[in-house]
Specification:
heterotrimer, A mainly alpha (292), B alpha+beta (420), C mainly alpha (260), B: alpha+beta, Rossmann fold, OB fold (Dihydrolipoamide Acetyltransferase, E2P), 2 domains, six-stranded mixed sheet, C: 260 residues, mainly alpha, MetI-like fold, 11 helices, 0% strand, globular
């Protein structure tokens, strides 16, 4: 009994600091977002007293469905392409020599930790109307001189893939590394071609990694804000841009909160679904390292 | 039985390591053939070359007269039982067994029938929908066998299939494998480092060392007449004595009886330091003055308190018992003579408790017939290192039966080196 | 059997895709032309002009103060959290603890930014360096915890029992055995937190107040409203610093792994 209690005490002792911090500064503010959705805005950019459904009503504004649709669409395409590129990479990294693997891993991680803004800016320079890529493509006659590479949905998509791809590569690589490649041999031994074995044995084998990659790319994509802000234009605005616009330009905090609440719900649905799925599949692997 | 599977001068290098070194080998239709050797001897590489997972650097592989060297694995009519079983973890037992048939796009009805037959054979009809991680090691093994056999391969390749099982289960699966081989009648190519498995299952065995075949023959041939000291030490347990061949026996003719004179040519005298002169059968006609290793199996030695009566070709030496290990059906003695620790095994064919057993510290006589010893080339340090190599991969070692089959250090080790 | 070349080609193509923009950016920082469509001449003029921007130095100071504070606090909180998660794994409390640590890692930053802004506004807290630092601890904590947790997975807890068996008290065990052995992991986590804090824009942007401009906020306004060549030069300097940090942290974490 006494040992049990001491164990209990020491558990609380090491758990409380981080738990309290996150309860107060993560959970409470998140709940607050939902609450403030029902508060009125004051003309001075503050939050008024009392309760109102005004924000909820403005969410019915016909502008929003288009933006939400674009946000989801861009995120789905970006996630799909990231996973399509990351899967052969994970396979490659799991199969090469350890030295080569370390090199590739380092090369993947390096841009991952490089300043986010700098990487976006690098693309802005590259795609700029007077930038190198534009000159090259015009010179080759691939695009008309008046075509803009920047400020459209394709530029947003490209840069989203550029910044999110490492988040897909790392979990897929982690799963591929654990994959028992003798299973591929077994499949070939039983008459399967390489591609068949890849589809029917390898992909199901790294399913946990694929799910994690989906989560790690799709969810941040839904909340993209800086990328459409810098390389996108008015026709490629996403939900994140609207939240920032309501916060900084219109100074309507309840309105921003309403949009955030919407985004939170949109994000929680796939997250809870996939976490549950992953737990069910393999309780142990659900704790795949998120860091590097 | 016809020659059915043929390796012709097959070699395979990994960097500077010769995994398989110009091996030629034929296996007959329906034969249970084993490749036996310590880890790194090339046996698994040879198997993988046949399966199509590795390309040989030189040589051809023929299966039923057809050259299959360049075929990809999925076009070869061979199937493999992997050491780890390699069952697909996301598929049920049923789907695992059906895999090969589905790949071959067989009609659904046929798949159902064939898988059903296999499930009956391995007695797992009621576990068909379990996933591999829900069944036991022995069951996994059976599923792996069924998954391979359902495709009706011309050769079944088995890569250390029992290594992952514990001793009891291994013995049971040994019998099952034997039964399955009798039942399906196809050729089995079995790779193992465990000589016990190879001896009990095989029609023929190829003992391999450093990418080459050291000896090929039936289990009895290999055990009773090892051609090299590596084979003698690797298969079973043996005592080695370091000696020099002296003159053939007839010159010294001190033997009683006339009959022996005719065969005396086949025997040589052997000089071993600290020992009386020994006699040894010399079928290889090793010349006088050559340096040899005399190898004698522990169970061929007799141990007694009294000096045994002299008899033709009987070698007798005296020693002191240093260790006695009672093993139930037999007892193992370690007897010290000069620099040698001689291992002797005595079968208990009579009620033991009535006897006065030989104990630690007693002076004893060890004797054997000259026919039971072999003169072999020197047992090198390299051989010793190869044999001591741990079995590759898979958690379970063969520790439990190591006492019985392979003494840690054969008698050749001088006393000073291994005090005990 | 020939392995397919697709994985190899995809891998190196992606790596080229990762580095081409960065290389061009760095090259352009030495190009005296404004947009880098053509090469005028090699020059350090953007670097020299960068030195004359006092607002950049001010922003850098702010960033370092915030990163230093956030790193220290999140190292303490994250290490203790990782220890709790590992040692008491399986308890109801730790399941909750794990979810609340894991969730900030995947949630879009903008959500944390806005929710903290609303939180601070509601509590009428003056926005400034402190609020940014607090916000940074909130997400850095999770990264430190995950890094240390990963290290704890291959930590042999018999060592703690051995220390206690040899007469070490709880405090001695923590100070003399546990922390030194976990030091590489904690340091790697700290480096990670530091890098993330220095780099963070979205969350900082939401909770920044007047006079608390950080470097990323400064860069953002430069990208939005002005001087691209200057950012080229600044980015190059940042790239050199982060590359050094990442390689150092990889080295530390590899060395720690080998030692363990």
């Amino acid at each position: 009994m006494k040992a049990g209690r001491r164990r209990n005490l020491s558990e609380w002792l090491v758990t409380l600091p981080s738990l309290l911090w996150l309860l107060l500064l993560f959970l409470v503010p998140t709940v607050l977002v939902f609450a403030i959705t029902f508060k009125p805005a004051t003309p001075y950019g503050g939050i008024g007293d009392g309760w109102t459904l005004a924000t909820l009503r403005t969410l019915g504004n016909p502008n929003y469905p288009a933006i939400i649709w674009r946000t989801v669409w861009l995120s789905v395409v970006a996630t799909t392409l990231c996973i399509l590129l990351a899967t052969p990479m994970g396979y490659y990294m799991a199969r090469v020599s350890p030295a080569r693997r370390r090199l590739v891993l380092l090369l993947v991680i390096l841009p991952f930790w490089t300043s986010f803004l700098v990487r976006i800016f690098a693309w802005k320079v590259l795609l700029h109307p007077e930038g190198m890529l534009k000159h090259a493509l015009t010179f080759l006659g691939l695009i008309a001189p008046e075509t803009s590479l920047l400020y459209n949905a394709y530029a947003v998509l490209l840069v989203m893939i550029y910044t999110e791809l490492p988040f897909a590569i790392l979990p897929i690589y982690a799963a591929s590394e654990k994959f028992d490649f003798r299973l591929i041999e077994a499949a070939k031994d039983l008459g399967a071609t390489s591609f068949f074995a890849f589809r029917k044995i390898f992909l199901p084998g790294i399913r946990v990694g694929l799910l994690t990659a989906f989560l790690m790319v799709f969810i941040p994509s839904l909340g993209s804000y800086v990328i459409p802000d810098i390389v996108g234009g008015p026709t490629s605005e996403m939900l994140g841009n609207k939240i920032a616009q309501r916060t900084f330009v219109d100074r309507n905090l309840p309105h921003a909160a309403g949009l955030s609440a919407l985004l939170t719900v949109a994000v929680l649905i796939p997250m809870v679904a996939i976490t549950a799925l992953r737990r069910k599949e393999s309780p142990k692997d659900a704790l795949i390292e998120e860091g590097v | 039985m016809s020659e059915f599977l043929e390796f012709k001068d097959v070699s395979k290098h990994y960097g500077s390591v010769k995994a398989v070194d110009h091996v030629s080998l034929t296996v007959k239709q329906g034969e249970f053939f084993s490749l036996l050797g310590p880890s790194g001897c090339g046996k698994t590489t040879l198997l993988r070359i046949l399966a199509g997972f590795e390309q040989p650097d030189t040589g051809r592989v023929l299966l039923g007269g057809e050259d299959v060297t360049d075929l990809p694995p999925y076009e070869r009519k061979v199937n493999t039982i992997f050491q780890s079983y390699a069952l697909f973890p996301h598929l049920s037992v049923w789907d695992n067994i059906a895999f090969g048939l589905k790949v071959a796009k067989r009609p659904k009805k046929e798949i159902k029938e064939e898988v059903g037959k296999m499930l009956t054979m391995i007695q797992m009809e009621d576990q068909a929908w379990k996933k591999p991680d829900q069944i036991s090691g022995g069951q996994k093994q059976r599923v792996a066998i069924a998954r391979a056999l359902v495709n009706k391969p011309r050769v079944l390749l088995l890569d250390e299939p029992l290594a992952a099982l514990d001793l009891k289960l291994r013995q049971r699966m040994l019998i099952e494998l034997d039964l399955i081989h009798d039942e399906v009648g196809i050729t089995f190519l079995y790779v193992t480092h465990d000589q016990g498995e190879a001896m009990s299952l095989s029609d023929r065995i190829a003992v391999m060392k450093l990418g080459k075949i050291e000896q090929l023959g039936t289990p009895a041939e290999i055990y009773e007449a090892p051609r090299t000291s590596f084979v003698a030490a690797f298969i079973g347990d043996t005592n080695f004595f370091d000696g020099t061949v002296a003159e053939p026996l007839e010159k010294n003719s001190v033997l009683e009886g006339f009959l022996s004179v005719a065969v005396d040519k086949d025997y040589s005298r052997l000089k071993i330091e600290d020992f009386p002169d020994l006699e040894c059968y010399n079928d290889k006609q090793i010349k006088e003055g050559e340096h040899v290793f005399l190898s004698i199996r522990p169970e061929k030695l007799r141990i007694s308190r009294e000096r045994p009566a002299a008899a033709p070709h009987l070698n007798v030496i005296q020693g002191k018992v240093e260790d006695v290990i009672y093993l139930g059906s037999q007892t193992k003695y370690w007897v010290r003579t000069g620099d040698y620790r001689i291992s002797v095994i005595r079968q208990h064919s009579r009620f033991l408790l009535d006897e006065k057993p030989i104990r630690w510290g007693e002076q004893v006589w060890v004797s054997w017939h000259a026919d039971d010893g072999f003169m072999l080339e020197k047992y090198s340090e390299q051989d010793e290192n190869l044999i001591q190599l741990p079995p590759e991969e898979v958690g379970e070692t063969t520790e439990s039966n190591q006492i019985l089959v392979r003494a840690p250090a054969p008698g050749a080790v001088p006393a000073g080196a291994a005090p005990r | 059997m020939k392995p397919s070349r697709v994985p190899l080609i995809v891998t190196w193509a992606v790596i080229a895709f990762f580095y081409i923009p960065i290389v061009i950016l760095v090259a352009n920082s030495f190009n005296s032309s404004r947009f880098g469509g053509s090469w005028e001449s090699t020059s350090l003029k953007w670097y020299i002009r960068l030195m004359d921007e006092p607002s950049i130095w001010h922003a850098l100071t702010n960033t370092l103060i915030i990163a230093g504070a956030a790193t220290l606090i999140s190292m303490v909180l994250g290490t203790s959290a990782a220890f709790a998660l590992h040692r008491f794994a399986g308890s109801q409390l730790q399941k909750l603890h794990y979810s609340i640590i894991y969730t900030p890692l995947v949630l879009p930053e903008i959500l944390m930014g806005l929710s903290l802004l609303l939180f601070f506004v509601q509590l009428k807290v003056q926005l400034g360096l402190a609020t940014i630092a607090i916000a940074h601890v909130t997400f850095c904590l999770s990264y430190v915890a995950m890094t240390v947790l990963a290290r704890l997975q291959d930590f042999d807890f018999a060592i703690i029992e051995a220390a206690q068996d040899l007469g070490a008290g709880w405090w001695t065990t923590v100070w003399k055995v546990l922390l030194p052995m976990l030091a590489p992991g904690i340091l790697a986590g700290g480096l990670l937190a530091f890098t993330l804090s220095i780099d963070d824009f979205v969350i900082s942007f939401f909770v920044a107040g007047p006079g608390s401009t950080t470097l990323p906020i400064k860069i953002y306004s430069m990208i939005k409203y002005g001087a691209p060549p200057l950012i080229n030069a600044l980015s190059t300097i940042l790239l050199v610093i982060t590359f050094t940090c990442v390689i150092a942290s990889q080295y530390l974490s590899n060395r720690g792994r080998k030692a363990a």
